[in-house]
Structure formats: structure tokens, C-alpha cells
Specification:
Shape: globular
Helix content: under 10%
Number of helices: 4
Structural class: mainly beta
Radius of gyration: 20 Å
Number of strands: 30
Number of domains: 3
Length: 392
């Protein structure tokens, strides 16, 4: 199997979760019925941007095949039967990927690559390949809601410090104009998010706050689980709006779980995505539906123990993203949620916000079969997974 074939047959690994295969379009209107009423996923957005003549010309110069996202940037970029380049220069994969993006920044509507932060440099199974993922940020605030990511996949060339780039995938929002600073606190954002879901609470109910790995973890009266909030930015047209991402989880009889994006200046709700597994009631607006695969797992009651890998899972051509969500039965469990490529022991993504639930989102150009694994952090009681839910 050659390098490009290996890239297009990615293998996943995870456990105690739900795995979601999202097609080229993410227009899913999912209605979650609970004791709180019928709640739908939505995202506030402006009219999609079309790619410019300069972008199309840059793609033609590469003799590449491209698909475009709603921000008018390249969602997938590859050259059929070959490489985008065989001469990307760099002592490391990260340096080479950043340099290549700098030369082709017009395709991603970037004024500069200086604002791109390295999110991961993953070594691919079965060779010397790398998948380097960058995260966009504006005024130091990372883009939320699964956007602002660019992944460049490559393999070393025969010449020293030269790389062959197989393909690139992205949810790049381009260079946006930042609008003001953060005014609300994380606790205030959570109150807005919960209220939007019909859950009555107030700042008085927020008992403790702890910051870990970029997330503010809240203990809130009336909520069994720890609630998670993090600050970032949200692309709205050509503007970068300061925003909070709140994971609201309420398990009282039925499970209610939503990822909600809150305007950090006004408290307005910018997006809301159901994390529950009730996609059977969803009305799919596009021909490429979201496929959801639920499964259970159990981690032994010893420190740093792991569940067995789940899978492999197979995704057909056109799948653009994989998302998983896991919640432990015991709220105090600190789980780590890993996503693997093939038989590799090095995770492509390791979701660890310091508690439960955990979620990941991985969006290469295409994805193949895979497996999933959950592990328990040291000094935590063992858990038996009860609920798992997808994000789209």
C-alpha cells in the first residue's frame, strides 16, 4: 500500500462512546425530545462565501482537485495520482507544513500563517508519514465549534529535509476581523447556555470553578455532572466573535447533552449541537447523512487502566469528520478518550479535559476503518460507561 492510499484508509480507535461519521455537508437538523421539550441543533451563520478567482487559480496551478467549505476555503485538496508537492522544505514535518501553507495561503484565505498554532503532529502507521494539524486563533482565542483547523499530510522525500505532501484538509475560516473582547465570565456563559435549553439556573447555583487544560469546570447546584466551558472565537461571516463553548450535560431520568456556543459579549446563542444519540428523529437536509454508531465499554478498576479498542469502523468515500462523545456513569471519573490511526500506539487525538464527559473531532480529507479506546486516569474509581452521544 502506498502512502496516499494509507492516508485515505485512516484507522480509528476509541471506547465507551459514540462515533459519528459526518459527510461533506453538515446540515443536520436534529430534534432531541426530552422532558425539556423538543430541542433542535442549529448554527447562526451568514451566506456561504464562494471561493475567489485567485483561490481557484492557485488550485489550478497545483493541478489539484478541491472541495470548498462555507467559508470559501479549501475543505479538501489533493492531486489525483500524485502529490501536491515533492519539495516542501523543512527540518521537521511541522516546519515543512507551515512553509507550504505560507506559500499557498491564498487557498485558505489567510493573510499570514503566524497565527496558526500547532495542535498535533501525528506519526502515521505503516511508514514515516505525518499528519500535522494547525489551529486558527484570533486575538489569542482559538476558533470553536470544530472550525479553524488545517491538516497537512506528508511523507519524507529522498532528499534530506524535503517532504512530499499527499493532501490537505481543513475547516479554515480564513482571516477574520476580530470584534471586541470578552465581557461575560465562564459561569455567566453557562447560565445563558443552560437557559437556552430550558434548564433553570443562575450564578448563585455555581458552587465551584476549576480551570484545567483550557476548560473551566463548573460544579452547579441541580446538575449531577460537572459542566465544561471554554473561551474562544466563532466565525460569523468575515467576523471573529469572542465566544464561549459550553458543554451542558444533565442526566435526570433522560440524558440531555448539548454543545452550545455563546457570544462572550452579549450572551446570545450562536450555535447549539445535540450530543445525544437521538439522530433517528433527525431530518437530513442533504444527501450525505450523519451516521451514528453507539457502543458501550467498561474500564477495569485499577489506576491508568484502559478498555479494549472498539472497532475497526469503516467510513465510505466522502466522509469529512469523525466525532465521539463519552460520559462515565460516575461523574467524578477522569477519563481519557483516544483516537488511533491503524495499529499505532500513539493517539491522533487524546481528549482529556480533566474529567467526564470527553469528546473529540477529527477531520482528515477522508477516513477509513478504525477503533476506539477509553482509559481511566490514575487515582480515580473504575467506571462502567452508561451514556454516550455524538457531536456533528
Amino acid at each position: 500500500m502506498n502512502f496516499r492510499q494509507a492516508l485515505l484508509r485512516a484507522v480509528l480507535a476509541a471506547a465507551a462512546v459514540m462515533l459519528v461519521f459526518a459527510g461533506p455537508s453538515f446540515g443536520v437538523s436534529a430534534a432531541t425530545t426530552s422532558s425539556h421539550g423538543k430541542l433542535s441543533s442549529f448554527a447562526r451563520a451568514t451566506k456561504p462565501n464562494a471561493p475567489t478567482a485567485a483561490q481557484r487559480a492557485a488550485v489550478r496551478k497545483l493541478h489539484a482537485k478541491v472541495t470548498w467549505n462555507s467559508f470559501g476555503t479549501a475543505a479538501t485538496l489533493m492531486r489525483p495520482g500524485g502529490y501536491l508537492t515533492k519539495q516542501a522544505a523543512g527540518a521537521t514535518a511541522v516546519v515543512a507544513a507551515r512553509g507550504w501553507l505560507a506559500r499557498h495561503k491564498v487557498i485558505y484565505r489567510l493573510d499570514s500563517v503566524r497565527g496558526l498554532r500547532v495542535l498535533a503532529d501525528s506519526k502515521l502507521t505503516g511508514g514515516r508519514g505525518h499528519a500535522v494539524t494547525f489551529q486558527q486563533s484570533f486575538k489569542g482565542l482559538k476558533v470553536l465549534n470544530g472550525s479553524g483547523l488545517i491538516t497537512v499530510s506528508m511523507v519524507p522525500a529522498k532528499q534530506l529535509h524535503r517532504w512530499k505532501i499527499g493532501f490537505a484538509s481543513s475547516t479554515s475560516v480564513g482571516t477574520l476581523h476580530s470584534t471586541g473582547g470578552v465581557k461575560l465570565s465562564a459561569a455567566q456563559a453557562f447560565v445563558h447556555a443552560a437557559g437556552n435549553l430550558g434548564l433553570k439556573t443562575s450564578l448563585v447555583n455555581v458552587r465551584t470553578q476549576k480551570v484545567a487544560r483550557g476548560w473551566t469546570n463548573l460544579r452547579v447546584g441541580g446538575f449531577r455532572d460537572i459542566q465544561h466551558v471554554r473561551v474562544g472565537s466563532y466565525g460569523l461571516g468575515r467576523l471573529a466573535v469572542p465566544a464561549y463553548e459550553a458543554i451542558v450535560l444533565q442526566r435526570s431520568g433522560s440524558t440531555l447533552a448539548f454543545r452550545t456556543i455563546v457570544n462572550a459579549r452579549t450572551g446570545a446563542i450562536l450555535a447549539r449541537t445535540s450530543l445525544t444519540d437521538n439522530f433517528s428523529t433527525a431530518r437530513i437536509k442533504h444527501t450525505h447523512a450523519v451516521q451514528t454508531i453507539p457502543f458501550n465499554g467498561e474500564v477495569p478498576g485499577t489506576d491508568a487502566a484502559c478498555d479494549v479498542r472498539k472497532g475497526p469502523f469503516t467510513a465510505g468515500p466522502g466522509v469529512r469528520a469523525l466525532t465521539g462523545f463519552a460520559a462515565a456513569t460516575l461523574q467524578n471519573n477522569d477519563i481519557v478518550f483516544n483516537l488511533f490511526f491503524g495499529a499505532s500506539t500513539t493517539p491522533l487525538i487524546s481528549a482529556d479535559t480533566g474529567t467526564s464527559p470527553e469528546q473529540f473531532r477529527y477531520s482528515p480529507a477522508e477516513v477509513g476503518g478504525g477503533a476506539l479506546q477509553a482509559a481511566r486516569r490514575a487515582n480515580q474509581p473504575g467506571f462502567q460507561r452508561r451514556d454516550a452521544a455524538p457531536v456533528s
